[in-house]
Amino acid sequence: MSSRFIYLDHAATTPVRTEVLEVMQTHLSESYGNPSSLHRAGRRASVVLQSARQTLAALLNARPSEIIFTSGGTESDNAAVRGIALARRAATGANRLITTAVEHKAVLQTAEDLRDHFGFSLTVLPVDRDGVVSLASVAAALGDAGDVALVSVMYANNEIGAVEPVAEIGAYCREQRIPFHTDAVQAGGKLPLDVNTLQVDAMSLGAHKFYGPKGVGLLYLRSGAPFWPVVTGGSQEGGRRAGTENTPLIAGMVKALELAETERASEGARLRALRDRLIGGLLEAVDNVHLTGPQVRRLDNHASFIVEDADAEGMLIALDLAGIAASSGSACASGGNRPSHVLEAIGASPEQAAGAIRFSLGRDTTVEDIDFVIHKLPEIVVRVRAG
User: Fold this and answer.
1) In angstroms, how far is CA 100 from the centroid of its own chain?
2) Catalytic residue (one of 269, 332, 367, 382)
C-alpha cells in the first residue's frame, strides 16, 4: 500500500478545518451549558446560539427566526418534506408531492414513505441525460397546483454533480403559491445560498460537506411556511425541533460556512480548473470512459465517470492501494446491491452503472494530485478489465 494519500471523496465528507476545530474546542470547554437553562452557564450557551443563528441568517439572506438547527442534512430533508407536506395537507387538503428521480434518498425515500403510509400521491419527475430536470416538466406536473403539498428539487447532485435550475423552479412555485424545498447539502460552500434569490421556502444544509463537523446541520424555513415538527418532546428551536442544541457543533458549523463563503469564488475557480484537467485527462487516457452529468453546469469540484467493462469496487480497491480515495457514487447508499437510482435515471444500464466512479476535489487537492490520478487510473482499469 502506498504511503501517499490523496483524498478525492469530498462529496462524501470533508475533513474539519483547523479554524473550525479551534472554535469547537473553545465552546466545548466554555459553552457547555444547556441553552434553555436560566443560570450563567445556560445564558452563555444561549448567547452563542443566538449569535450563530444571526450569522447564519446573514449568510443565507434570511431572518434568524427562520434558521432551525438539526443533526444534519438527512434530518433537515426529513423535517422539510414531512413537516411541510403534513402541515399543508392539514390546512388545505393538498395531497400531492412532486420531486425528481435523482434526489438523495433522504428526500426520495421520505416522499415514498408519505405515499405508502400516509396516503399522499407522489409524482417523480424524469431528468435528461445530464441529470437535470426542466422547468417545463415541473410546470406540467404542477398543473393547476391546487392539490400540490410540496415540490422538492435538489440544488446539486451528489453522484453526478449536476446543478439543477432551482431559482427558476422556485420562482415558478412562488407564482403558483406552492411550497418549494431544495436539498442544498452538496451545494454548501460551493454555490450561492441566498434564499431569496433561490426563492425557496425551505433549504437543507449539512456542516460536514463544507469542512464542518458531522452531526449538525440546519433547515432554513421561510416565515409563514406550513410546518409540523418531526422531532417532538421539547420547545427548542421555537417548538420546531425538540432536543438540546449542540452548541459547540453549531458554532463549528457557523465558522465553517463563514470561511467557505469567504473563499467560495476563488476556491471555486481553482477547483474548476483542476476538475477540468482531471476530466480531460481521464477522457483522453482511458478507453471507453464517459463523463456522467453535465460538462459545464456541474459542481466545481466534481468529476464522475462510467468506465465500461470495469468493476467499480475493483477500481476503488486498486486506487486505495495506490493512495487515492475515491467513490463509486453516494457514500450514503454504498454497500447495496442495486444499481444507483441516479444512474438509472440518466439512462445508464446496470452494467454501465457497475463501472461508475466519482472523484470529488477539495481544499488540499493539487495539480500534482490530479496528474497522479491521470497517470494511475489507466493502468488500474487495464488490470481490472483483465480480471
Assistant:
1) 15
2) 332
